[in-house]
Amino acid sequence: MHIEKNVFESVIGTLLNIKGKSKDGLKAREDMLKMGMRTELALVKKGRRTYLPPAAFTLSRKEKKKLCKSLSEVKVPEGYSSDIRRLVFMKDLKLKNLKTHDCHVIMEHFLPIGIRSILPEKVRSAITKLCFFFRSICSKVIDPEILPTLQKEIVITLCELEMYFPPSFFDIMVHLVVHLVKETQLCGPAYMRWMYPAERYMKILKGYVKSRSRPEGCIVERYIVEEAVEFCTEYLSNVQSIGLPRAQIFDKMEDPSSVTERLRCLAYGPSLHVFSHSAYSINGYTFYTKEQDDKSTMQNSGVTVLAEAMHISSMKDLNPKYANLSYFGVIEHIWVFDYEKFQIPIFGCKWVNSSGIRMDKSGFLQVDLTRVGYKDEPFILASQAKQVFYVNDPKSTKWSIVLFSNKVTDDSGVDQCDIDVENESCIRRNELNRNDEVEDLIPDESYIRNDHNEGIWINSSVRIAKKQVINIPTKKRKRC
Q: Which intervals hold domain DUF4218 (predicted)?
């Protein structure tokens, strides 16, 4: 987790030219000049100022705005991560106050999206493959058979990065990336070993402190009270915790009498009074309506359902095939039908038509939320819903990229199965990136950008002034 954090800070610091985080600068250019490499990036002195020509990874101010704007518009579901928008400062075009988990989320999910419309193709492809590698190596479930292929891919990716980034970029943390696959083979998935759960629980424990003079005692007393309350609730019937309405969980109906009672309620039908909610908790997710989503800092209205559909090649096809098909949409209504003995929640959704769903060449699953379809079948059972969220595609404002919510714990306390984002592996994405026939914005042997001239200016007079301030006057030395 710390390797990923340090690598991300090096990448984003170099792209946005963040002071103290960038691996490109005056000394890096001087070192390359001494080594006789990339002479086209040599320093250009103009009076008392020094100009660093734009390298292949140097972003123009317009591109920096695009990247920061893409991150500033991200809204994630509840419990997915912290609010990414608070970490982006559009005035300075920088990212600040990043925690380790923030770097983890941005590196694996949002950075590949944010750079889709900027940077030369080869540089963008190398950074994207590095992000996909971390996503694969940090998965909750890893197939041991793909680990050798991942090892080959990361070696190639680092070699591609060496073609464009300066040697100062490749410190010990970037080197340690090569050993992550071997570490996974020996120790298992990183998901079972990292400290994110412990750090999140430490935040809960810090919230127990009411008196700063006795922090340990506050934590112990609050913890004991919660344990006692949870112990008592196990022996009380029909007790439900305060919060959002939750779906009722029924035991397996093995008793014939209970089946008859349930059939009786279904036969009489639901009550004429329908409960409407703006938020609902079920399947371990918290869902919002689109109206509530617009008021919130989170995005909880995205929904997907996996349904079996009939596929035919033409009207004359007499052998239709049935296959599972994913539908994506946005929740507009949350209704709960009361059957006296139990309640059934349903979601009224605005579904995206099949023509508005596609997989692009880079392996991103995209939807066009304006293409509405299936208007005659808007409702699904809430128990069938899984949560997704949508990120605006900076490459095309018409399309949105689909990301799946985190793995969650359902009401019974059992962890649900892991959800693979876009159901695509890192290896498949890398193959797509290598096989793309795209127009190269920079030649194979060129490391300078010709599409803009917004390099880095260094004022040498500032450096001289700093040296003069450090000098101590002779009189003060005698007094000492």
A: 137-241
In which residue are the tokens 């008392």 written?
48
Residue range 143-179, pLDDT digits in tens:
999 999 999 999 999 999 999 999 999 999 999 999 9
Q: Which residues in 179-314 belong to E strands, given as ranges?
A: 275-277, 279-282, 285-288, 302-311
Rounded Cα distance between 410 and 23, Å, is 44
Whether the per-residue pLDDT at 253 is higher than 80: the answer is no
Predicted local distance difference test score (pLDDT) of residue 322: 80
Percent of the chain predicted with pLDDT > 90: 45
> Which residue type does 212 have?
R
Beta-carbon contacts of residue 264 (< 8 Å; ≥ 6 apart): none
Separation in Å, CA 220 to CA 39, 215, 321: 63, 9, 60
What are the pLDDT digits (tens) for 15-41?
999 988 899 988 999 888 898 888 888
Contact indicator for 92, 19 with CB cutoff of 8 Å: no
Angle of helix 2-16 relative to helix 61-72, nearest 10 degrees, comes to: 140
434 token code pair: 């290598």
Answer whether residue 428 shows pLDDT above 60: no
**Cα-based distances in Å from 76 to 79, 85, 411:** 8, 10, 22
Token pair recorded at residue 393: 């595609």
The residue with tokens 């009074």 is 273
Q: Which two tokens stand for residue 361?
A: 């060449």
**Side chain identity at residue 269, one-letter code:** G
Q: Which of 302, 281, 257 is nearest to 74 (CA)?
A: 302
Q: Alpha-carbon distance 52 to 119, whole Å? A: 18
- Amino acid identity of residue 159, one-letter, is C
The 8-class DSSP code of residue 107 comes to: I
Three-point CA angle 82, 84, 89, nearest 5°: 135
Place of tokens 């022996």: 235
| pLDDT at residue 468 tops 60 | no
Judge contact between 389 and 76, C-beta under 8 A.
yes
